Known about the structure:
Layout: E1 2-8, H1 16-30, E2 35-41, H2 43-46, H3 53-69, E3 77-81, H4 86-96, H5 101-105, H6 108-119, H7 130-133, H8 135-145, E4 150-152, H9 158-175, E5 183-185, H10 215-223, H11 241-249, H12 252-264, H13 268-294, H14 297-326
Parallel strand pairs: 1-2, 2-3, 4-5
Helix pairs in contact: 3-13, 4-8, 4-14, 8-9, 10-13, 11-13
Bound molecules: adenosine-5'-diphosphate and tryptophan (TRP).
Amino acid sequence: MKRILTGIKPTGTPHIGNYFGAIKQAIELSKNEDYEALYFIADYHALNTVKNPELFKKYTHEIAATWLACGLDPEKVMFYKQSDIPEVFELNWILNNITPKGVLNRAHAYKACVEDNKNKNLDPDSGVNMGLYCYPVLMAADILLMQSNLVPVGLDQKQHLEITKEIARYFNNTFGNFFVSSEEYIPESVGTIIGLDGRKMSKSYGNTITLFGDEKMLRSQINKIVTNSQTPEEPKDTDCAIFKIFSLFATPKQIEEMKEKFSKGIGWGEVKKQTFEVANSLLAPMREVYNYYISHPEEIDKILENGAKKARQIAAQTIGEVRKLIGKE
Ligand code: ADP
Ligand code: TRP
C-alpha cells in the first residue's frame, strides 16, 4: 500500500487559505483506500518562528482541532505531533552528516533572508539561526522516516521535496539503497487563495479570513475585503478578491447567478452579505466540531498520542534499518 504523508506547521490560527489550499485535498486523499495516511503537526518546525510557550501550545491545539473539524478520521489516519516521534530527530542528525552545505545554501527561505539582509546592508547571516538553515533536513527526516511515497503540499514546498529526494539519493549512494523516492503531490486545481487585499492570503500579510472564527468575526473579516468605489448600478468585473472568495464557498449555480448580478450591477455590500451567507453555511457545522475540541484539549492530546504510537512503529522499523546500514548495530 502506498504511504501518503503531510505536515502543517502550527505558526498561527488557521485561515481559509490553509483549508482550500491544503487541508481539504489532504482529507479527500486520506479517504482513498489505496493509501495509508500519516498527517502530522510540524511543531518543531514552528519553533523557528513561535518562541512563546503559550502560543506554541495554542497553535498546536488549533491546527489539530482544525484537521479534526475538517473531517480527518483518526481511526484511519495516523495523526500525530512531530515532536512525539524521537526517531525523527535521530534521523535528522544522521541526514545532517550526508547533506552538503551547498544544498542548503540554495534553499529559498534561507536565501530570501540573506538577500533581505544584504539589501539592508546588514551581515548576510543576521537573524539566521540553524533551525532556519537546516529546516529542509528536518523536513526530509519527517518524510523519509515514514518511507512516504506521496507528499501533498502547496507549490511553495516544491523545493523542499526536491531537497528531500536529493538527501535520499546521497544516503542511498553512501550506505546502500534504502529510502524510497518521495514524490510531491501538488494538486493543479488548487491555485493560490486570495486574501482580503487581493494578495496571496497569508498570516504574514495579515490579510486572512480565520477559518473557524465566530460568525461576528467572519462577517467583519468579509466586510474588510477590498473593493472599489463603483456604485451598485454599475456592471462589475468578476476578476476581484470578493468574487474569488465568494466562489470558494458557492455552488456552481450560485456562482453563475452571482456572475449575472455582476454584469447587471450589484452593490458591494450585498455581495459581501451573500459571501458571508455561503461561507457561514459551509463553515458553521465544522466550527461546532472545532469549538468542541478547543474546549476539550485533553481529547486532542489523546488522539495525537494514539497516532504517535502507531506512527512510531513505522519509525522504529526505519531507524532500526538505518542504524544497521550506518554500522551502529
Ligand atoms: P501562511 O502563509 O499563512 O503562513 P502556511 O505557510 O502555514 O501559511 O501554510 C500551510 C499550508 O497551507 C501549506 O500547505 C500552504 O501551501 C497552504 N496555504 C497557505 N496559504 C495559502 C494560500 N493563500 N493559497 C493556497 N494554499 C495556501
Ligand atoms: N514545511 C512545511 C510547510 O511549511 C511543513 C512540513 C514540515 C511538511 N515537514 C513536512 C510538509 C513534511 C510535508 C511533509 O508547509
